[in-house]
Amino acid sequence: MNITVIGTGFVGVVSAAVYASLNHQVIGLDVDEVKVALLKQSVVPFYEPNLTELLKTQQAANKLSFTTDYKAAIQDADVIMIAVGTPSAPDGQADLKYVFMAAESLAPHLKTGAIVVIKSTVPPGTLEKVSSLIKAKTQHNFFTASVPEFLREGSAVYDTLHPNRIVIGATEAEVFDRLEALHEGLQAPIVKIKPESAQMAKYAANAYLATRITFINQIADLCEKNGADVEDIIQAIGHDQRIGKHYWYPGLGYGGSCFPKDVKELAAYSRSIGESGNLFVKINQLNEERLAQLVRKFGEKVGGWQNKTVAFLGLAFKPNTDDLREAPSTKLIPALIMAGAKVTGFDPMAKPTNQQLGLTSADESSYSQASDIQTACLNADVIFAVVEWPEIVSFDYSAIKLAKSQVFIDARNRFAPDRVTAWGYKYISIGRTS
């Protein structure tokens, strides 16, 4: 099939490269001339494992190209996928202007029988609005569908090549058949449902995962009050098959490009339809409040942040990405500096500017960035292990232990408490007895 993917962000580039690998002819379309110029040279403007190699392979095979020309990209396309951003508006709801702009721009160039697919995360009802916008600017018959993505940053290529399901939201049998054929090379279960259900399924999946993170953080807070260990709790409840041992991550809360945005949007959507008192509103509130609470809690345990030197290990929101969206670093580092600390940051991949970290010119003298863990920890009163990069978790901190008293904060519970204390550090974690 001839496939066009509109939007060359994280979802768009990964989707385009994978569809090309399935032997389809794919065009990536974007209005950003700089981004397209880079992609034409197989330069990905963000870090995602294995994506650059896949891009180069498919471009070399002439299966994948990129352009800013709507007419050239749309006129022969059998399937057009809208994969543009849907940032949260000031009221918390999804801002759909880029989806609507893409719909209006593609409409004049559609061929008869083309399928316009929304891959972006959008609330139920969006497909009808997109269809109306296209109808106003074309005389050709076309179809619409919703095929949400369920990718994880840091493993997006693998997730796309080995999905645990493909969700297709449509109303016509022909559309289901054609989109099923598009994905048959992935050998994944096909879930055929209404467009509204497909759109809601994406929000439901992310909100549920965010709920698990929020839930276990609430349990961890209780454990710190009563002497229980949250890791023991996870082991005990995990044997219940209805619960499972997977996806329990006590820590700083959820971050990244999806969970905070999608939960916030689901909360705002709930309020807009008269369901303002539901669970999603509370989950969003608890997560937004968590980092400030932990800064205060950790501050009490380290004897206050004033004049403390802090090694802050992990700047991206999670391992295997350089994405800073809703990363703990962007909130914790300014808060630590405001509380009187001097901070040195380290990340194997993310190298943010002070502005990206939310720092002002007045903060510059209190923050620096190191190229390795050892340099970051020089003279540190507190080592704050924030992100579980393999480089951070496997590092031998005994080799850099100083003669002075030092605190080791394990924000993801990835270190053995007795090992850290044997190194000579005071160990602090999340909901865990040391």
Name the features:
Rossmann fold, 16 helices, alpha/beta, 434 residues, 40% helix, six-stranded parallel beta sheet, 14 strands
Task: Give a quick summary of the entry.
This protein is α/β, with parallel strands linked by helices. The chain has helices at 10-21, 33-40, 51-60, 70-74, 97-106, 126-135, 156-161, 173-183, 195-226, 230-238, 259-272, 279-301, 329-338, 373-376, 390-393, 417-423, and strands spanning 2-6, 25-29, 64-67, 79-82, 114-118, 142-146, 166-169, 190-193, 309-313, 342-346, 367-369, 382-385, 407-410, 426-428.
Write the layout of secondary structure elements.
Elements: E1 2-6, H1 10-21, E2 25-29, H2 33-40, H3 51-60, E3 64-67, H4 70-74, E4 79-82, H5 97-106, E5 114-118, H6 126-135, E6 142-146, H7 156-161, E7 166-169, H8 173-183, E8 190-193, H9 195-226, H10 230-238, H11 259-272, H12 279-301, E9 309-313, H13 329-338, E10 342-346, E11 367-369, H14 373-376, E12 382-385, H15 390-393, E13 407-410, H16 417-423, E14 426-428
Parallel strand pairs: 1-2, 1-4, 2-3, 4-5, 5-6, 7-8, 9-10, 9-12, 10-11, 12-13, 13-14
Helix pairs in contact: 1-3, 5-6, 9-11, 9-12, 11-12
